[in-house]
Amino acid sequence: MSRIGKLPVSIPKGITVNINKNSVLVKGPKGELQRDFPPEIGLEQEDGQITVIRNSDHRTHRARHGLTRSLLHNMVVGVSDGFKKALYIEGVGYRASVQGEQLVLSLGYSHPVVFDPPDGISFEVDKSGRELVVSGVDKEMVGEIAARIRRKRPPEPYKGKGIRYVGERIRRKAGKAGKAK
Predict the structure, then answer these.
(1) How far apart are the first and last CA of the chain?
(2) How far is CA 167 from the centre of its chain?
(3) How many CB atoms within 10 Å of residue 174?
(4) Complete domains list, the chain, with CATH
(5) HSE of 50 in the Cβ direction (CA atoms, 13 Å)?
(6) For residue 44, how many C-alpha atoms fall within 13 Å in the half-sphere facing its CB?
(7) SS (H, E, C) the chain
(8) What pLDDT shows up at residue 180?
(9) Residue pair 164/87 in contact by the 8 Å Cβ criterion
(10) pLDDT at 56
(11) Using CA atoms, how far apart are residues 133 and 121, in angstroms rounded to an integer?
């Protein structure tokens, strides 16, 4: 039995969960999320907890058991607390700013890079324009948008310039040594 799949998902106060066959709608103070789950996985709600049950011990059913529980847990946490992903921009002249809802990045290109946030995603930039936070209720979407931003100028190994996640370590290279005479 899946160790993660066996754990029940607790529902905090202020969160409503509607289970309709294999479709789940979770509403909370931060927003709402809806997802369809495979029919071979069953969901039961009782006493403020949701239990994930699989119909058989088939390989794909076992694989989806823990996944379904994790996705359901992320939905509940997202609508109650939300998710954040922090990025740091390093390099001379590299900056970020928020204009309206859009994120505008100056990354050494001949033009500014503009990101329009999808529904449920917001950007925050500190005063220096170096630290950027992507936040939202859907964990998958927050991670995807942060990865797309990082992809515009990934950190390079010689000087470390580029966009990296906060806490990410960049393996540095020594660079070219001078000519020996």
Answers:
(1) 67
(2) 15
(3) 7
(4) 3-80 (3.90.930.12), 83-165 (3.90.930.12)
(5) 25
(6) 11
(7) CCHHHHCCEECCCCCEEEEECCEEEEEECCEEEEEECCCCEEEEEECCEEEEEECCCCHHHHHHHHHHHHHHHHHHHHHHCCEEEEEEEECCCCEEEEECCEEEEECCCCCCEEECCCCCEEEEECCCCCEEEEEECCHHHHHHHHHHHHHCCCCCCCCCCEEEECCCCCCCCCCCCCCCC
(8) 57
(9) yes
(10) 86
(11) 10
Query: What is the pLDDT at residue 155?
Result: 94
Instruction: Identify the DSSP state of 58.
Output: -
Residue 122's beta-bridge partner residues?
Answer: 135
User: Could you tell me if 4 and 55 are in contact, meaning their C-beta atoms sit under 8 angstroms apart?
Assistant: no
What is the C-alpha separation between 96 and 88, in angstroms, rounded?
10
Q: What is the value of pTM for the model shown?
A: 0.88
Low-confidence residues of the chain: pLDDT under 50: none
What pLDDT, in 10s, does the model give residues 80-105? 999 999 999 999 999 999 999 999 99
Residues paired with residue 113 on neighbouring β-strands, in sequence order: 105
